[in-house]
Design brief:
Elements (H helix, E strand, L loop, with lengths): L1 H24 L8 H7 L2 H21 L11 H23 L5 H48 L5
Length: 155
């Protein structure tokens, strides 16, 4: 639990920064969406809402990485649950903050996030396969050395 809270706190801080940066880069007037500005009533309140809620997205993303430490779960299951967790937080927060003006925009974001998640999953699989291959080669060399020693050879 301690590790989860540490990761979630780190993600919260990063999420606050990234959320405001994304909003600024997308060209929203005063770095908040017009919808959020109208809901909040003032720019400072809108910025506060955006900052605090963006942090939740980061906390879900970073805290959810602990799913990958579950040895009993296949990597695909960890990835699917992590994606579901992030989307379950991102979509309502993004809707509230006015980051996507319509359901089609939210669907497009979900598709993009899913595609990126799948790409990261493929990269992780390739990385793990390379690690397993390297460990198997090291193990095979060690076994050959031991066999050579057992028949009286010198190393």
């Amino acid at each position: 639990m301690k590790r989860f809270f540490r990761l979630a706190a780190t993600g919260y801080v990063l999420g606050m920064a990234v959320g405001n940066m994304i909003a600024a880069l997308t060209g929203h007037l005063n770095i908040v969406s017009p919808e959020l500005l109208q809901k909040a009533g003032s720019l400072s309140a809108a910025l506060l809402w955006q900052t605090l809620l963006s942090g939740l997205i980061g906390a879900a993303g970073f805290g959810g990485t602990l799913l990958y430490k579950l040895d009993r779960w296949p990597l695909a299951a960890c990835d699917a649950v992590h994606l579901a967790l992030v989307l379950a937080v991102f979509l309502p927060v993004g809707k509230f903050l006015g980051w996507f003006p319509s359901a089609a925009g939210a669907l497009l974001m979900a598709i993009i996030m899913s595609a990126v998640h799948f790409l990261i999953f493929l990269i992780m699989c390739a990385h793990y396969r390379a690690q397993v291959r390297e460990l198997n080669e090291l193990n095979e060399r060690r076994m050959l050395r031991n066999q050579y020693k057992n028949i009286g050879g010198t190393v």
